[in-house]
Specification:
Distance between the termini: 109 Å
Structural class: mainly alpha
Number of domains: 3
Strand content: under 5%
Radius of gyration: 32 Å
Number of strands: 5
Strand order of the largest sheet: 3-5-4
Order of helices and strands: EEHHHHHHHHEEEHHHHHH
Largest sheet: 3 strands, mixed
Helix content: 25-40%
Length: about 450
């Protein structure tokens, strides 16, 4: 591909061999970039599995664009208390039964979200030489700091963590870059898009919500703000003439598709069970990273540790996925058709439960959305213009007006009919009184 001349010089880092001692920067004009090997372009450096001893070239403009299997494993040890054996670090699989490495394959959807959140990170302006995140290890340490300080405010965590040098030996003092790093870490930990719309512009799905973590709010309080629950349960608010389990059967994914809905997978927990009315077909977004929720629950199961999100929230989401939307193996075709995570077919939540976990749910978090979907099934929202017009004109006031107009027209027609009948009677009377004689 040919590039036009641009009066700009850039520094491209060259990926070196694991046996070489250093990376040699190479200065090239953009007009000659077509002569370079494509493996030197920073956007092509997307390494997902490497040997632990292999060095990975890091582009200073996009320091998180490459990630190794070992770094993903280390992230699991921080977020979900994984216990890895000493022989499988960086390996594709591990045969040891107690090693948490075997759960990596089930988390492909989460790893894709992680790459999406980190791929476009670039240090803010003046922070280019002192970035808040110069490697994935810096991000892992930031996530560890947030998890260790769930009861600390965001401002306190930033002050404490960024007062220490990162992996490149420098201290980041750029406030905007620190905030963006915190937003990326929170988005990964809490499975929701955290930050301003500008921060989320690179990864926010169309129509998806984002929420800002304020500086004076603790991590625990932020999760309650991000995932509020209703004051009344879905069970108590259901229609009185419908059995609860019959109502839930209406909400199976197969019946939603038959009713004309489309399904869309999302990795943002706050978008779960939201309806998108913008397209030609109404679309229901469904959170499908069920494996991550199971890891969160398993991390707090043996010793009663704290879950990154409210434990009841994680259990309720899994209940909506496994018992309501995709209750049996017949859902496999829909999961494959719409690109959902195959983990939705694994009904193994019992392995993550604690003795004090509820077995039945009132759906305090997502009951309102379940009821909205049910109401949409029973009384669909007008989608076309003429349907909207009829909907607007079908209110009680308009119905009474239409009835009065109909009565008025009926009275007029009745009076006209009575007049015509009277005239016909008059003509008949005159013919009888004054008969015409034939000549």
């Amino acid at each position: 591909m040919q590039h036009g001349h641009v009066g700009l010089h850039v520094w491209w880092p060259i990926m070196h061999s694991p046996h070489s001692a250093s990376c040699v920067p190479w200065k090239a004009e953009l007009q000659n970039i077509s002569s370079l090997d494509t493996t030197l372009h920073p956007r092509s450096l997307s390494v997902t599995q490497t040997h632990p001893t292999m060095a990975i070239a890091s582009d200073p403009m996009f320091p998180l664009r490459t990630v190794s299997s070992e770094q993903l494993q280390n992230l699991g040890t921080v977020m979900w208390d994984w216990e890895l054996c000493n022989t499988c670090n960086g390996a594709a699989t591990c045969s040891r039964p107690k090693c948490s490495r075997k759960g990596v394959e089930r988390l492909d959807t989460f790893w894709n979200r992680y790459r999406t959140l980190t791929d476009e990170y670039t240090p803010e302006g003046a922070a280019f030489s002192r970035p808040a995140l110069s490697s994935h290890d810096d991000l892992r340490r930031l996530i560890q700091a947030i998890r260790n300080g769930l009861d600390l405010t965001r401002e306190r965590i930033i002050e404490s963590h960024f007062s220490n040098p990162n992996s490149n030996g420098k201290v980041c003092t750029h406030a905007a870059d620190q905030d963006r790093a915190m937003n990326i870490a929170a988005s990964i930990m809490f499975m929701t898009n955290c930050g301003t719309s500008r921060d989320c512009a690179d990864f926010l799905e169309e129509g998806g919500p984002s929420i800002s973590w304020r500086s004076d709010v603790t991590a625990t309080a932020f999760t309650f703000e991000a995932f509020p629950h209703a004051s009344s349960s879905f069970v108590s608010a259901r229609p009185k003439d419908t059995r609860f389990f019959d109502l839930l059967r209406f909400l199976a994914a197969s019946k939603l598709v038959k009713a004309g809905f489309s399904l869309e997978p999302t990795d943002d927990l706050r978008s779960h069970l939201t309806i998108d009315y913008s397209g030609r077909i109404k679309t229901i977004r469904i959170f499908h990273c069920s494996a991550v929720l199971k890891e969160m629950l398993s991390a707090g199961r043996p010793h009663g540790g704290r879950c990154l999100i409210p434990r009841l929230l994680a259990l309720e989401v899994l209940d909506t996925l496994h018992n309501i939307l995709f209750p049996d193996d017949r859902s496999e075709a829909l999961i494959q058709k719409y690109g959902f995570d195959s983990d939705l077919l694994r009904h193994d939540v019992s392995q993550c439960r604690r003795g004090d976990d509820p077995r039945e749910f009132e759906h305090l978090y997502f009951g309102t959305r379940l009821r909205e979907i049910y109401d949409e099934l029973q009384n669909p929202t007008p989608h076309r213009e003429w349907e909207s017009w009829l909907e607007r004109k079908s209110g009680g006031r308009y119905m009474l007006m239409a009835t009065m107009i109909g009565v008025f027209i009926a009275v007029i027609i009745g009076l006209l009919g009575l007049g015509i009948s009277g005239f016909q009677a008059y003509v008949s009377y005159q013919q009888w009184k004054h008969p015409v004689k034939d000549a």
